[in-house]
Input
Amino acid sequence: MAELIDRSPRAAARSSPWSALQRTEDWWAILIGVGLVVLAVGLLASGGSLKWLAIAPQKWSHLPQALAQLREHVAQYLALFALWAVLLGGGAYALGFAPARFLPAFALLYVAALLLYFLGQWDQAARYNLEPPLVALALGLLISNTVGTPRWAEPALRVEFYVKTGIVLLGASLPLTLILWAGSVAIVQAAIVSLVTFGTIYFVGVRLGLDRRLAATLGTGGAVCGVSGAIASGGAVGAKKEHVSVAISLVILWAVITIFLLPLLARSLLLPTGVAGAWIGTSEFADAAGLAAAQAYGGYAGQIPGISGSADDAVNAFTLMKVIGRDVWIGVWAFALSLIAATRWEKTGVDSGGAVAQIWRRFPKFVLGFLIASLIITLISRGYSYADYKKLLQPVLVAPLQVLRVWAFIFTFLSIGLTTRLRELVGGGARPFYAFTAGVAVNIALGFILSTQVFADFWARLGQ
Amino acid sequence: MSACCGNCRHFRDAAAELEALLPGLRTLGSAYGAVRGSDGICERHGRYLTASSRCREHAWRTPAAPPAPR
Output
């Protein structure tokens, strides 16, 4: 049956850049994240707070204490579920997911997240390495690769949607002045590591006889922003479909390994949380994976003797490094590579062009939500002294938004594990693996030197 | 409207379809993100391309003649 072009006004609207943006997770993450910040500010202005709704488990020692907490706050947990179901379900609906399929799956995810959140508040959790991000990932991996994730649960496993929403909310706890101050260092550090990592993967790959487009796709995946980097550069240079698949698989494989490896190495060296966060932000491959590692390491603050800094320092340093330092440049990388591919590399029979417009088109728009959230809170807190901010504003305005952010990240970590199928990650061949792995080794070593030696003082002082 | 991948019948750019065609894409990435733009897979060439790409084997998504220029 022939396909027909829909010439309706709706179809015309669908093709505009504005409507295209509305069909992205970035847009809905901004709408949800900034919407919650605006709601929190509105409630504050009317003498209220999001505190009641933004419920989080408290520290507990014995199981009966945890159960008592749950019973006492059951109405709040149900209300929070309703809030997330409406917001995330609405976004998912706009993206094309039927509510009847999304909501039951999300209910399961919410219950699993609740249990993990409680587990993380056990006062012995750090002693047994039961950091919620790592437990969520390990549990998800176990289920996904043994009994298999139920198909009906898949619509709610939207890693990127949740992590983008969480990062927008994270903007509310980072003053814009800090982002501007730290952003320049993050950009310098990220630029050094990105260029060296890309160069390593690309030149090792070409030396091993890989197609240049595959080498470039692998290089961007390792150097800039993981899977997003791989698909952006893959599209820009017109890579073979199977080459994009190879790059995605290698990014996931190494990202999952480094989620466990980097916190372990940082812990063995007792790195301050800000320094470890910067290292993870420099050397992890994907936002969601890096946040899992950074949040896990942040959990050691105050739990492991010798690790200085706060839990937030790890996540803040990671976000500045990864999002501001690396992610926002993906459009520039794609544009540069598309020009090189069109003018210097062998022809493929397809003209992919090299439009400069892709710098904006590929820009990860959720970063704008992160900056807007930061700007709103910075403006609101402008008239407060630091002491008054901590005493009056932080508990009723910022803390509830931080709790909502943690929820969004737990949804993310669970979704990573439950969607990772290890058998899908093998079969790309030895040469791409060697090239990418060479880049991983250089990336981790250089990221370590820059974070713990060259810029160590800067990252250690981040939270002060 | 000129002939390009975005209006070619060989081009697959629906987000759900792309996530099915590229295993692992939704694990640490997404076909619904702004970064992808309107990229998709050309089944004719077996390549991952921008919607504005062009080739000599373009085939309109409708059997009718291409729309007249505006």
Observations:
- The radius of gyration of chain B is 13 Å.
- Chain B is about 10% helix and 10% strand.
